[in-house]
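Translate structure to sequence.
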């Protein structure tokens, strides 16, 4: 049991010397900025929808998740062809956007329109 602790410490050690540390910082900043951009875009979409329709729709996270799953699945299906990686990524993004749009339209038709019809008139 005493030997397991140093082995575990060796396994999780991160080399922070030289270029590895700089690359770690750049990757961390890049991932943080990408995540912040996605969250900001979702917040803008939520604000815009509430300002226009006066109905709070908290399903934006689900639309992002649907898009992410579809993009991951699409890229996974075609990942054998490494030569066309950029084309595969672009196709996965377009298919994911279409899937998110379809999910949004279905939710709007099934749920949001029902709330809009049942809401008292605003005059």
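Result:
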């Amino acid at each position: 049991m005493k030997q397991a602790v140093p082995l575990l410490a060796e396994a999780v050690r991160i080399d922070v010397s030289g270029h590895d540390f700089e690359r770690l910082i750049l990757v961390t900043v890049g991932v943080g900025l990408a995540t912040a951009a996605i969250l900001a875009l979702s917040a803008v979409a939520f604000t815009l929808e509430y300002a226009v329709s006066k109905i709070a729709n908290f399903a934006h996270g689900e639309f992002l998740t649907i898009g992410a799953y579809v993009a991951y699945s699409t890229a996974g299906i075609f990942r054998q062809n490494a030569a066309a990686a950029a084309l595969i990524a672009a196709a996965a993004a377009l298919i994911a956007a279409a899937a998110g749009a379809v999910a949004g339209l279905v939710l709007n038709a099934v749920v949001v329109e029902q709330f809009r019809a049942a809401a008292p008139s605003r005059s």
